[in-house]
Amino acid sequence: MEISVAYKMCQQVMEHHSKSFSKAFQLLPLEKRQAVWAIYAFCRTVDDIVDEGTNPVTELNDFKTNFEQFRNGTIDESDYLWIALNDTFSKFDFDIQPFLDMVKGQEMDLYKSRYNTMEELEQYAYYVASTVGLMLLPILSPENKEQLRPSAISLGLAMQITNILRDIGEDLDRDRIYIPKDLRDKHNYTDTMLANKEVNPAFVRMCEELSNIAEQNYEKGLANIELYPQFSRLPVTLSAYYYKAILTSIRQNNYDVFGKRAYVTTQQKQHILKMVAKA
């Protein structure tokens, strides 16, 4: 398979699953854009194995074996993911640990479905989301990747909390509850209320607290945006603003995350792009 075809398939994965990220990062130079596609496809493949695989434990073990072989220089020449990732690894100086940590985080969903404290949730968010930012730093800001590490971790936390708020109902249907028990207890939102998918004042207060934590981390994630090269400042800022707009949508739906899907319209994205480009 030609490398250009492999990258095209990665691009299609990203465009299918995340129009927001695809739109934000399409502003990058081609070589960097292709690398982002490959990283996204890697992460999405693991996520789909865990959430949609017919035998996720076996499939994830097979993926980890393939990744180990990839690291040792052996790739499946018929698999677009490893072809694209191999080319990307030849062009950028990646730290392998975030890749391993991301796989570990996805694997957590196979045996852990409840979280007791915010600290536990933040650790999970690091593994499944902050690691993605760390993977992208060698592409987006190779010179300042160490200085930007805390910002990338914060931005990942903000985005993962946003995901959790948006997907409370879907996760509950999978028997997963990411909102920490201590936060539910603090707001007197009981397990019975959650099982019944009640949107009451306690639920709204609880979600609002999580939303505020997310917003604080969006601010931290963009606090050092000047450390990014000019070519990547706009894509990083846009990705944060697009995701942050999901929080606005959730609030506009009065936190009815069980009955309404929070999303950002194309028109809203265009408005955000104009606003950020002028800043």
From TrEMBL:
Keyword Phosphoprotein attributed: no
A single MF term (Gene Ontology): geranylgeranyl diphosphate synthase activity
Pfam families, sorted: SQS_PSY
Keyword Transferase: yes
Domain of life according to the entry: Bacteria
EC assignment: 2.5.1.32
InterPro entries the UniProt entry points to: Isoprenoid_synthase_dom_sf, Squ/phyt_synthse, Squalene/phytoene_synthase_CS, Trans_IPPS_bact-type, Trans_IPPS_HH
Example GO BP: carotenoid biosynthetic process
Alphabetized Gene3D superfamilies for the sequence: Farnesyl Diphosphate Synthase
Enzyme class: transferase
Key words, A-Z: Carotenoid biosynthesis, Transferase
CDD domains, sorted: Trans_IPPS_HH (cd00683)
Pathway: Carotenoid biosynthesis
Entries under PANTHER family matching the protein: BIFUNCTIONAL LYCOPENE CYCLASE/PHYTOENE SYNTHASE
The protein, known as: Phytoene synthase
